[in-house]
């Protein structure tokens, strides 16, 4: 008997949701039978409740509608739009129901409300430079962003104390705050936090909760047309039939909230993640024992350094201890990680080889790489000048392979640690040592003042995050949330603490009480040493200034076309890639104009190459005057040029291109008189990569030349 009862209970977990019965009336059953498709209005940018990703609508409400579909037998057809547009569609009966609506008495004539399916606090967000927020009086006279037709607009307007600025989309209102167009915004917590996380905004913080007498929280409900009471009854019964565990799954999946009240930041974990940490009790951690001031062990064996301060934050966030496991070297740390002797590696660069045994969070530290040589060696403007020379790199560091690949002619020698590398340079066993700027500077200051110097920098920085053993995805998710939760103030506080440390030796003043002679010797020695340090510091400052100037010049040369002094092709590739990422992030488009000079070979053949060079310089100068300040021009190669027009639609790009064509045609060039150009134009689409968009605009240019030149063709 007990076995039969147990089997019945077990089978309940495997019965499809659609078969669980709801007590629908005959009238409701008939409605379901005759009205299979129900039009529901949703917002495409109301993350994490409903938003578009990879051209698909996803989110809490989409999953909720799937559950309602299974329970009721109705099929929901999505209609997307910004809030004021979908509210208008609902009021004018173009759709059957609307999601994310909050109760307001004035909406009752056209709305049948369900009970709330989620309630969220309404918060006030500001930039991190805002200062202290006490209450709504702190916003007096300030520009405050709100969404159009939001349900608390009337109450804020009646206060008449702040300048309300109305926006249509969540992206617009968040960007406005990020870029200083408004002083604050008022909106629900999960939505803005999702956008902060998605777009990696670092200058926003939570000031406090909106508190008004008649406004408590944003109550999310479904609204059903007032002429469809049967549909309202079906939806409410279906909502009532959703089990607690089903709500838990929805919330665990989508409502991942982090918030900052005062100065302490908290990370919200799912129920399962909290349970995991409670059972785990502590997290074992391997570190680099020789990477001060980033991390290491002090003389008492205690974990210290920049990363140690980050892990103190993580301990506060997660209420769990991180236990450092001592290793003798970075190589041993990597070996321990491979053998799963530690749960995480505290500070590590992601590489393909390491992905075989670790997963990685996003980086939380970025570190420049520098070359150290003896004082008598010249500054290194080009790493290719090191061909055939011995350069030391700490064994096991990821940039060993990076450096070998980039500069195969340099003789790479692996050393035990930074001290070993610098000592070998000091003894002329190595020409140079490559290491991180702060670690090298820390050791130079300790032991090598007046002996070694920083002689060059690498263009690539090292990005370091947390390495998590690859058999523990839950821990990876938890630590990623912790990394995401670090505020910009916390970042600055930790870095400033460690990079402003000063080291000094205190004289033993008891010597003065021994003999006058010893006192005089000490004072003389101190004066001599002080002059020596001042001289060394002056040399170091001069050297640093020279490095900075040379680095700035190197950086400019690396991205600039030598003849025309505009961006070169390599830089254009980077800027195109960046513009594509910006367009994906902010959901806008941009235009590209690709042009070359018609019959340019004839110019070189007839007037000589110097005249041709003069034309290239003059044409780029002229076009630089014609394009907008936000547009970017670069030389693609030869007589071909490319212009990037950010946040520009098809019609506007064509107008810019035609204006350029016309002015060049009318311009008088010295010696040569008139020239024309052919232009191809295109705009970015969400499917584009750098390769596809360049090919498309190149094809447009080809069509312009094929069609008779001196024209603009859009592709």
UniProtKB/TrEMBL annotation:
Keywords: Coiled coil, Membrane, Transmembrane, Transmembrane helix. Residues 530-560 form a coiled coil. The chain crosses the membrane at residues 511-529. It holds the Pfam family SBP_bac_3. It is an enzyme of class 2 (transferase). Signal peptide: none annotated. Residues 588-715 form the GGDEF domain. It catalyses: 2 GTP = 3',3'-c-di-GMP + 2 diphosphate. Its EC number is 2.7.7.65. InterPro entries: Diguanylate_Cyclase, GGDEF_dom, Nucleotide_cyclase, Rev_trsase/Diguanyl_cyclase, Solute-binding_3/MltF_N. GO terms for molecular function: diguanylate cyclase activity. This is diguanylate cyclase. It comes from Halarcobacter ebronensis.
């Amino acid at each position: 008997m007990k076995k039969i009862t147990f089997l019945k209970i077990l089978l309940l977990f495997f019965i499809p949701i659609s078969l669980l019965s709801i007590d629908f009336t005959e009238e409701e059953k008939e409605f379901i039978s005759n009205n299979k498709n129900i039009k529901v209005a949703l917002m495409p940018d109301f993350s994490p409740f409903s938003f578009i990703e990879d051209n698909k609508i996803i989110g809490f409400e989409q999953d909720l509608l799937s559950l309602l579909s299974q329970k009721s037998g109705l099929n929901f057809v999505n209609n997307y739009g910004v809030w004021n547009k979908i509210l208008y569609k609902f009021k004018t009966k173009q759709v059957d129901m609307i999601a994310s609506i909050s109760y307001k008495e004035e909406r009752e004539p056209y709305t049948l409300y369900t009970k709330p399916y989620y309630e969220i606090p309404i918060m006030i967000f500001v930039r991190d430079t805002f200062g202290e927020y006490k209450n709504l009086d702190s916003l007096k006279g300030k520009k405050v962003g709100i969404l159009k037709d939001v349900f608390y607009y009337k109450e804020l307007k009646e206060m008449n104390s702040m300048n309300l600025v109305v926006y249509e989309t969540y992206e617009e209102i968040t960007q406005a705050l990020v870029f200083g167009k408004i002083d604050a915004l008022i909106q629900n917590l999960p939505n803005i936090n999702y956008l902060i996380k998605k777009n990696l905004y670092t200058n926003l913080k939570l000031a406090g909760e909106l508190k008004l007498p008649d406004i408590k929280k944003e109550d999310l409900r479904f609204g059903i047309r007032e002429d469809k009471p049967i549909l309202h009854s079906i939806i409410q019964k279906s909502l009532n039939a959703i089990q607690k565990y089903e709500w838990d799954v929805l919330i665990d999946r989508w409502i991942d909230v982090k918030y900052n009240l005062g100065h302490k930041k908290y990370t919200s974990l799912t129920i399962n993640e909290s349970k995991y940490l409670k059972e785990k009790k502590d997290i074992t951690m391997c570190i680099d024992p020789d990477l001060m001031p980033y991390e290491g062990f002090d003389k008492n064996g205690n974990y210290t350094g920049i990363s140690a301060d980050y892990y103190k934050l993580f301990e506060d966030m997660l209420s769990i201890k991180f236990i450092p496991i001592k290793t003798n070297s970075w190589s041993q740390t990597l070996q321990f990680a491979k053998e799963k002797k530690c749960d995480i590696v505290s500070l590590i660069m992601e590489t393909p080889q390491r992905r075989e045994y670790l997963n990685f969070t996003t980086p939380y530290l970025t570190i420049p790489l520098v070359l150290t040589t003896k004082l008598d060696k010249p500054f290194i403007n080009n790493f290719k000048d090191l061909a055939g020379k011995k350069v030391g790199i700490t064994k096991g560091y990821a940039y060993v392979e990076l450096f070998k690949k980039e500069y195969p002619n340099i003789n790479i020698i692996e050393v035990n640690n930074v001290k070993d590398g610098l000592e070998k340079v000091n003894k002329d066993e190595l020409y140079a040592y490559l290491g991180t700027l702060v670690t090298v500077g820390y050791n130079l200051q300790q032991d090598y003042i007046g002996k070694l110097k920083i002689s060059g920098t690498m263009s690539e920085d090292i990005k370091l995050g947390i390495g998590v053993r690859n058999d523990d995805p839950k821990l990876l998710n938890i630590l990623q949330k912790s990394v995401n939760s670090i505020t910009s103030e916390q970042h600055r506080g930790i870095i400033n603490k460690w990079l402003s440390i000063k080291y000094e030796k205190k004289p033993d003043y008891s010597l003065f009480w021994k003999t006058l002679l010893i006192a005089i010797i000490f004072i003389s020695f101190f004066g001599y040493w002080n002059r020596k340090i001042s001289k060394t510091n002056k040399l170091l400052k001069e050297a640093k200034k020279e490095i900075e100037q040379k680095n700035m010049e190197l950086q400019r040369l690396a991205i600039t076309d030598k003849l025309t002094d505009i961006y070169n092709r390599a830089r254009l590739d980077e800027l195109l890639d960046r513009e594509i990422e910006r367009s994906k992030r902010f959901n806008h488009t941009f235009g590209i104009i690709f042009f070359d000079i018609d019959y340019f070979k004839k110019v070189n053949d007839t007037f000589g190459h110097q005249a041709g060079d003069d034309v290239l310089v003059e044409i780029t100068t002229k076009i630089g005057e014609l394009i907008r300040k936000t547009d970017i021009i670069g030389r693609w190669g030869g007589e071909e040029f490319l212009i990037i027009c950010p946040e520009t639609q098809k019609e506007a790009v064509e107008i810019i291109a035609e204006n350029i064509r016309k002015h060049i045609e009318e311009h008088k060039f010295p010696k040569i008189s008139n020239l024309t150009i052919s232009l191809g134009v295109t705009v970015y689409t969400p499917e584009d990569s750098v390769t596809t968009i360049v090919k498309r605009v190149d094809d447009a240019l080809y069509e312009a030349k094929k069609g008779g030149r001196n024209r603009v063709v859009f592709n």
